[in-house]
Design brief:
- Chains A, B: Pfam families: TetR_C_11 (PF16859), TetR_N (PF00440).
- Chains A, B: This is TetR/AcrR family transcriptional regulator.
- Chains A, B: Keywords: DNA-binding, Transcription, Transcription regulation.
- The structure is a homodimer.
- In chain A, helix 2 packs across helix 5 (about 75-80).
- Chain A is built from 10 helices and no strands.
- Helix content of chain A is about 55%, strand content about 0%.
- Chain A is mainly alpha-helical and about 220 residues long.
- Chain A has helices at about 1-5, 25-45, 50-60, 65, 75-80, 95-110, 115-125, 130-160, 165-180, 190-200.
- The structure holds a DNA duplex (30 and 30 nucleotides).
Chain lengths: ~220, ~220
DNA sequence: GATATACGAAACGCAGCCGTATCGGACGCC
DNA sequence: GGCGTCCGATACGGCTGCGTTTCGTATATC
């Protein structure tokens, strides 16, 4: 492969270090293509709404330049999504509650971002494009969940969380509550904080007398 | 309107009671169209993936029969979604925990249904088709949330929930945790139950000594 | 400057879909 | 049995997109 086609390992961006027979591929064009793809994937209704021609037009690029890198539309979207990683930053400096508050506010704020809107469209088309969804989940979603997982495990180790608590359930609660709304409608004021405290404290009446300082 | 077009109030299914000049519209065809529309909306990637021609073909119907009832594709989808109501049934016979368990299991089981897959695609296209999403939210989503709201309020009235608990936050936790996964991937065994108990009891370590019977 | 590749632009044939129009026939009421 | 409407089928012009090909040009290394 590398002999005949000058090492065109699609969409890896691996610049041929040792050799470069002709004009090298434009890194600028590649970035513009990826940006345009993500924009369209976020704006249009799903994978079906993204067209190569629209991507080329928005990126200011010829279709040739796209097909030289990715063999078809689905591969293009896969590549673009892989480049769209946005891992959460582990605050890692406070109590579990403090760390979760930081992350929850971040999750709440991100909802209107391109990233979040892409998520809906990719998840919705999961059955039509299972490989696309699987890679997205592995490359983008999981690293983000891993940060939450780490924070929660720290809390368990420190005894700040109830010993039997299941981190996966906690992640589902936090992420679900904050992300499971169409990007269109807004979160109420103070919602991320309320979610964190509800997850930590529960909403059930206590079987034992509880210190009623609030949370 | 009713004079010139024989009362064709689009997609209301209101049979002209007093008068019926010509051949009445086939109720069977209408149902087939709606079913086909929902099927396609669930299977394809979003609104963009639904085509009138595909609906007609799947429903075994001429395109004319569709355009006679709905003026365009978006109206067709709106109409089909309105007919796809599936309100939750209020169990209404046990404690809050028992009722929530019933509802949570129902939510978990519904995830792979056509209904849930439509939801993802409609929510994802919310920005491209805001009116469609708004009506869907009002006609389908809200009645379902209302059931949860009623159960939670009952719990508050009975003192089974902590007095200050916010039902909206609780709904977000429950629905989010159970529904915010692509229809593709499965819920772990016992997940709905774990979610309910996590929401009721919280995951935080208790400030006071807690009866360690589990829940 | 020779060579090799990438670039953007344009055009291709093919396919799908939109929304409309036109069929012959079916149906229900008067 | 006549009338009005609906039925499914088919075809239309127009548009958009796919994936390929062909341009002339630009930009690297040798």
């Amino acid at each position: 492969m590398s002999e005949t086609t000058t090492g065109q390992t699609f969409a890896t961006g691996s610049v041929p270090v040792g050799r470069a027979p002709g004009r090298p591929r434009s890194e600028r064009a590649e970035k513009a293509i990826i940006e345009a793809t993500l924009d369209l994937l976020a704006e249009e209704s799903g994978v079906a709404g993204v067209s190569i021609e629209a991507v080329a037009a928005r990126a200011g690029v010829g279709k040739t330049t796209i097909y030289r890198r990715w063999p078809n539309k689905e591969a293009l979207i896969v590549g673009a999504l892989a480049a769209a990683k946005r891992p959460l930053r582990d605050p890692g400096r406070g109590t579990v509650r403090e760390d979760l508050l930081v992350l929850a506010r971040e999750l709440g704020a991100e909802r209107r971002d391109r990233h979040a809107r892409c998520f809906w469209n990719v998840a919705g088309g999961a059955e039509k494009h299972p490989e696309l969804y699987a890679r997205y989940r592995h490359d983008v979603i999981e690293p983000r969940r891993e940060v939450l997982r780490r924070v929660l495990r720290r809390g368990l180790d420190r005894g700040e969380l109830r010993p039997g608590a299941d981190p996966e359930v906690a992640i589902a609660l936090l992420v679900g509550a904050l992300a499971h709304r169409a990007p269109l409608d807004r979160l109420p004021e103070g919602f991320p904080e309320a979610v964190v405290d509800a997850v930590l404290g529960g909403i059930g009446a206590e079987p034992t007398v509880r210190d009623d300082t609030g949370r």
